[in-house]
């Protein structure tokens, strides 16, 4: 009978605990039942949760309730961030990131360094890496690019509210303010770029009478030193005596938190309703964007007034709903990453899990954006007559996501590469291997576009098919005509004219200002 179930005793599984998210556990019994259950009723599995050893049962043997964990699920459940050590064997790292480099100064906030498509769609300069690039299990820029992680752990023991903290910097060096988890520190305690803690521990109304601090900061200043790499500093201590001072109105504080929570929930319902109406076709594209952005601005303003509400849960929602806006071709991937990355810094396992659910898709959107912008770059190279370079750029773009890109849906990358290879091959006239390669690319593009454009195919691909069929060897007239039509179609691509996607939208808000506002909350 046990063979009918998907998992055996001892299997590691991920269980859906509803509002608490997915939790890792181990199957300890099959066909579990409790004494008070009616005759014949059983649950497929009893599971011991890994985090706290709590015993639960899975009501139905279905992936909606219990599923096999992915490698990312295991990493999320078993460590604090993507730079922490795993409890089991060392994490496999990619080859050394030979394409990484910091030739110039650190990129300003919002500079889309991932759009070049190299370095696994991480910014080429690790000193510019954001919280998601450093901490997210789905980005894992250090591991993907083969960088060493030097981990330093400091345990400061126990402190009490009112104590002065004066932890001096050790061997951390500098650059520790790149992405510190400042929201985990007690009020009154400050952290320096060199790795020092200083200040007087004050009452934290968001914590109980006693709580543990697991503060993390990272320096990438020596990323290119193979003996150091990325330094991950973890400072831990326990705070006791966290009792509210006489002047603190605990009831008023809790009331304000409840009101903020209710307002945030109301805004989230509005965002969900707007998106549902768009998917049902009862709300237009522009109206959807405007409505969602208005609610998101309100949610951000609310969180700026209550920045530590519910351990960062609402920051994760703020970032997640910006992803919906990005799907509508607005330039908001930076907001997604900024707020989801901020949620990761809170240290809550549940909030981290919630953020990582969105970051899985967020990273894939990075890849799609990179493909889109490599397509644009290759198109611009063709406009300048750089056919060989364009073919290579377009090949790299298509390889990122099997010919897909951000709003690039009809094999556009493949047909563009075919055009570049046809012209470059005909110009060389040394061999005609390009003919078979161009035919292969156009066949891939035709399969991708058939559902939308039917038997006639995409108009540019149809022209290229006809040109390829008419090729009978080197011909100045044939080449001149192909170049003329290719320049025409490239101009259509860059103008965002149908059947190509519209031009990428400019940013709605200054990225640097968004970062300053967020950092100001921790000041």
Strand content: 5-15%
The overall strand count is 11
**Low-confidence runs of at least 5 consecutive residues:** none
CATH architecture of the largest domain: Sandwich
User: Level of helix content?
Assistant: 40-55%
Overall average pLDDT: 93
Q: Provide the structure class.
A: alpha+beta
Cα gyration radius (Å) = 27 Å
CATH class of the largest domain: Mainly Beta
CATH superfamily of the largest domain: Immunoglobulins
> What's the oligomerization state?
single chain
**Silhouette:** globular
User: What is the string of SSEs from the N terminus onward?
Assistant: EEEEEHHHEEEEEEHHHHHHHHHHH
Give the termini separation. Answer: 60 Å
Q: In the residues, how many domains can be counted?
A: 4
Tally the helices: what do you get? 14
Examine the coordinates and then state which fold CATH places here, giving the name of the CATH topology of the largest domain: Immunoglobulin-like
